[in-house]
Amino acid sequence: MCKSILTHDIDVQKKLLRGQMQKTLKDLLNDDSKVREAAKRAAEFFLNWKFYKEADILMAFVSSKEEINTLRILHEALSDKKKVAVPRVISDTRMDFFYLERDKPFEYQLSPGIFGILEPTELLKRFEVSDAAGKKTTMLVPGLAFSKDGHRIGRGKGFYDGFFSRFLPPVRCGFCFDVQIIPEVPHDNFDANVSHIISESGIIDCADRGRDSEP
């Protein structure tokens, strides 16, 4: 089978999966108390995780209303004196990260971007790959679905895969609800894996074929 047909098949599978996961998430998000409790438990797993505690730099997404909440983690990381960088869409194909400032409220640093998601203003300092030299960097990665072997499917814009082609943090943690962890995710050679997944049920070490990891 030629490469173009295989690529088409994977694209179709991804489109179908995105539709399924969006419906699954919509159903879950109708239960506010369940969503809040899940986000609280997942955040506790992350904040007690060795790769968070050891990190000098935390790169993390600012959650939308359709994602597991990350705001507590962002606040805690700044309180813990870590450098915290969050993403901003720069163009149709590019996303960069900018550092949050510890002494300013988020409402002065974040504003809705082109997709309605809170993004850092361009007045903040941009993350440069050289910043990570000699530093321990951990990234929280969003997604619609993850498999325990580390494959991920996003919303189809390719921003994270593009960023990972420029800088691939050694610890890339998918952060999601339990319902977003599925047996298999369609993928190709251009899709970057995550190294771990954290949900309300705990931590998964993807490099060890899905074995639950110690905090």
UniProtKB/TrEMBL annotation:
Binding site for ATP: 14-18, 152-160
Record lineage: Bacteria, Pseudomonadati, Spirochaetota, Spirochaetia, Spirochaetales
InterPro entries the record matches: FTHF_cligase, FTHF_cligase-like_sf, NagB/RpiA_transferase-like
Record keyword ATP-binding present: yes
Official protein name in the record: 5-formyltetrahydrofolate cyclo-ligase
Pfam families: 5-FTHF_cyc-lig
Keyword terms of this UniProt record: ATP-binding, Ligase, Magnesium, Metal-binding, Nucleotide-binding
Species, as recorded: Treponema parvum
Binding site for substrate: 62, 67
Enzyme Commission numbers on file: 6.3.3.2
Family recorded in the similarity comment: Belongs to the 5-formyltetrahydrofolate cyclo-ligase family.
Gene3D superfamilies in UniProt: NagB/RpiA/CoA transferase-like
Cofactor names: Mg(2+)
